Amino acid sequence: MAEQQEFDVVVIGGGPAGYHAAIRAAQLGLKTACIDAALGKDGQPALGGTCLRVGCIPSKALLDSSRQYWNMGHIFNEHGISFADQKIDVAQMVGRKDKIVKQFTGGIAALFKANKVTAFYGFGRLQKGNVVSVKQHDGTTVELKGTNVILAAGSDSIELPFAKFDGKNIVDNEGALDFTEVPKRLGVIGAGVIGLELGSVWNRLGSEVTVFEAMPDFLAAADKEVAKVAAREFKKQGLDIRLGTKCTKIEVKADGVHVSFTDAKGDQELVVDKLLVAVGRRAATKNLLADDTGVKLNDRGQIEVDEHCHTGVDGVWAIGDCVRGPMLAHKGFEEGIAVAELIAGLPGHVNFDTIPWVIYTEPELAWVGKTEEQLKAEGVAYKAGSFPFAAVGRAVAMSEPIGFVKVLADAETDRVLGMHLVGPNVSELVHEGVLTMEFKGSADDLARICHAHPSLSEAVHDAAMAVAKRAIHKAN
Description:
Blueprint: E1 5-12, H1 16-27, E2 32-36, H2 49-54, H3 56-74, H4 90-115, E3 118-127, E4 131-136, E5 141-151, E6 155-157, E7 170-171, H5 173-176, E8 185-189, H6 193-204, E9 208-212, H7 224-237, E10 240-242, E11 246-253, E12 256-263, E13 266-272, E14 274-277, E15 281-283, E16 316-318, H8 329-343, E17 357-359, E18 364-369, H9 372-378, E19 382-388, H10 393-397, E20 404-410, E21 416-423, H11 426-438, H12 443-447, H13 458-467
Parallel strand pairs: 1-2, 1-5, 2-3, 5-16, 7-14, 8-9, 8-14, 9-10
Antiparallel strand pairs: 3-4, 4-5, 6-15, 11-12, 12-13, 17-18, 18-21, 19-20, 20-21
Helix pairs in contact: 1-4, 1-8, 3-4, 3-6
């Protein structure tokens, strides 16, 4: 084995949390290494984690492609635009997605080089004393000694015991990004972010999509009014979402994948051509830690950390999907930067109360802060103001009048406690709520900020005005 190499910071994982931590640490003058095991379709190392390779970025590429196709058949005629032959080339669509993925994974490698982050490609395992052994893809093993080690191992798809992934008939998010043709019938287990987004992709392209959700409520984490509007629109689009439905058995036969399930009507069966299992993700901590490191895992396999992402073992930190908190790439971004700055002796903090959530369906859903249901349960007195996109000139001009913006503020102080949106481009608009809450602003602050006309952001402005019952473009 080669001589042990020493670094100020060793990061295990090159996903959103890990690569942010590595680059920021290097910017701060720390000698930094980052270890990542992932390979791209071409068999070459591909930094960026699940997010860039098989998650956030490729799914948005397919969502955009499928939306263009959907608009051709459902919206363009309103603009006077017609097509004689509407068709989709799935191979070209997937190829475009792959090209985007390669561009961004290669971009991180370039950033590592520019910032002098040393990359190691293989599987990293933490040993006692902040030593990381790396089994590289070429078969060799190297040892890295880190004054600080940051664990950013990410997460894996949860596999159901009765629905094992085969990469062909029963797939996870990765498989659903690479179908070679539009499945005539697609089954989806789980009506969460992944299930709804990828279900939407193939539904727009002509697949008959059935979504099985065990919970009785649709998008229970979202504002009830937002979820209600979204459910109505998804139904119009042809998504068959079955709530309170528990899948019990999966069998692959000659005529397709047989899904046995139980709902209010009793035991039933549905045959589909492909089945996407999207029931959540779990921390990818298997084989990450030697037995004597002192780093602890909870009963969900997550690494235990304090509010500063420290494990309690001197110099060992953990961030991203492998620790508590929402499994969101941008949460990992912020934790990675915060930990790098803490290591360098600077302040570092992540405010979990202002982390935005987005579902990139059509319409989009986004929110930050508390829902009305949470505020009622906590006994917090609040005021609410909402405004529909149907009254926003820009939205109507875009033929996207569905949805609304809701602002929730403290009844006494007027401080914004939450913002909930469903409609066009709300993945961008939600950040007005994030910024207002981060600066502890009030609904009145937001209402007194001049917003451009005509713009979608006017819905935010009028919703904030509606909190004090002074919206101009709706009856208060």
